[in-house]
Specification:
The protein has helices at about 10-30, 30-45, 50-75, 80-100, 100-130, 135-145, 145-160, 165-185, 200-210, 215-240, 250-260, 270-275, 275-295, 300-330, 335-365, 365-385. By secondary structure, the chain is an all-alpha fold. The protein contains 16 helices and no strands. Helix 3 (about 50-75) runs parallel beside helix 5 (about 100-130), helix 10 packs antiparallel against helix 14 and helix 10 (about 215-240) packs antiparallel against helix 16 (about 365-385).
């Protein structure tokens, strides 16, 4: 049996394939739903409430699968779980491409969204074991840029397939299959890493973090942040088209800008080191809320909409980094479980808020749903914060 020291791994190949898998699972399988929502509603004739329920189901699926994946990695190693993430994304996106009614569409979106929870734990484990020596943090940051890359890619595919959403989602599924093969070849098998007898039991570690009262503020903040972001992720493109009169092409470019702006988050660690968690959290969440208000109130103003979506993207990824540092600083011995639980709570906030936002859009107008999310961000920036000095 091979030992870790004898394992031959191309670390930057592992990093690149991990980036590609995260791009597929997050940028395509999960967040492309909002990009294509106008086309889905035209094809299957459903309203804001059902679209919010479908989006909420995708986020809820993450909450379930991230826990299951953490346990599976400890038992089977990273490679089969990473492969399962790619397969799950491919199956879900293929179902979306073949959907004949809203129910089949919802099932595809839910399965595709579940892939995000499956992907994160094995890649974090793989980077830790076999990532570039002395550059683990950099490799992890590159992999975490996957959602931004995927969002940008989904926008360019949408531009190439305007009016043909089935072709776009079929292409997404094919890409997912190719990336799954790449990841499977890049990650060593379980025998290369030895038995995981030293691993902390994932469910036990998650429970310990959740029961620690020090975690409650951070976890509540994560859920609030997720809820505050839900209008833009689910209804952003639809709103600027319907209420703002933007063309399909311009609205897709707006989505590309959103993904590109997320790359700003790669510097979030430096911002936190310079200004502290409390100040960065307060500023970024207030900016996210303000950006939601701008998009809600000025969807037809081109400069305002593009500025708003760029600020939203940069603030969103910065806030995920704040949650990462906030929760792990309290639980340095159970970092993986702390991160999983923090990100689970972000998705839980999105899962709960998405149906509510959809119902508000149906009964009060989409602009009102954006303002509700904006209020959560702006008020939450002052009400729920890291302790002073953090």
């Amino acid at each position: 049996m091979a030992t870790p020291s004898s394992t031959v791994v191309r670390p930057w190949g592992l990093t690149a394939s991990g980036l590609a898998l995260i791009a597929v699972c997050y940028g395509l399988a999960r967040f492309a739903y909002g990009l294509f929502l106008p086309a889905f509603k035209d094809a299957f004739h459903f309203g804001g409430t059902l679209s919010g329920v479908i989006a909420g189901g995708s986020f809820a699926a993450y909450c379930v699968t991230v826990v299951a994946a953490a346990a599976a990695v400890a038992r089977f190693g990273p490679r089969p779980v990473a492969a399962a993430a790619g397969v799950t994304a491919a199956v879900g996106m293929a179902l979306v491409a073949a959907a004949t009614d809203a129910g089949m569409l919802a099932m595809g979106v839910l399965i595709a969204g579940a892939s995000t929870g499956v992907a994160s734990p094995p890649l974090a484990e793989a980077i830790g074991r076999w990532g570039p020596r002395h550059h683990h943090d950099r490799a992890q940051a590159i992999v975490n840029a996957g959602p931004a890359a995927g969002i940008v890619a989904s926008g360019f595919v949408a531009l190439s397939a305007l009016g043909h959403w089935r072709i776009a989602w079929a292409a997404f599924a094919v890409v997912a299959v190719a990336v799954t093969c790449w990841v499977t070849l890049s990650l060593p098998g379980r025998s290369s890493s030895g038995a995981d007898t030293h691993a902390v039991r994932p469910l036990g570690a998650l429970t310990a973090v959740a029961r620690d009262r020090r975690s409650w503020t951070a976890l509540g903040a994560a859920a609030l942040f997720g809820a505050a972001s839900s209008a833009t992720w689910n209804f952003g493109r639809e709103h600027v088209m319907n209420a703002g009169g933007m063309s399909a092409t311009v609205s897709v470019l707006l989505w590309v800008v959103l993904g590109a702006a997320e790359l700003v988050g790669l510097s979030a660690g430096d911002l936190i080191a310079r200004h502290g968690l409390r100040r960065v959290w307060t500023t970024a969440l207030a900016l996210l809320g303000t950006a939601s208000a701008v998009l809600g109130l000025l969807p037809g103003q081109l400069v305002a909409a593009f500025a708003g979506i760029a600020v939203f993207g940069a603030a969103y990824v910065t806030l995920t980094t704040v949650i990462f540092f906030w929760i792990t600083r309290m639980h340095p011995e159970t970092t993986a479980a702390a991160v999983a639980l923090g990100f689970l709570m972000i998705s839980a906030g999105q899962a709960v808020a998405s149906p509510v936002v959809g119902a508000l859009a149906d009964h009060m107008g989409t602009a009102f749903s954006f303002l509700a999310c904006a209020a959560l961000g702006v008020v939450g920036a002052r009400a729920v914060r890291p302790r002073t000095g953090a």
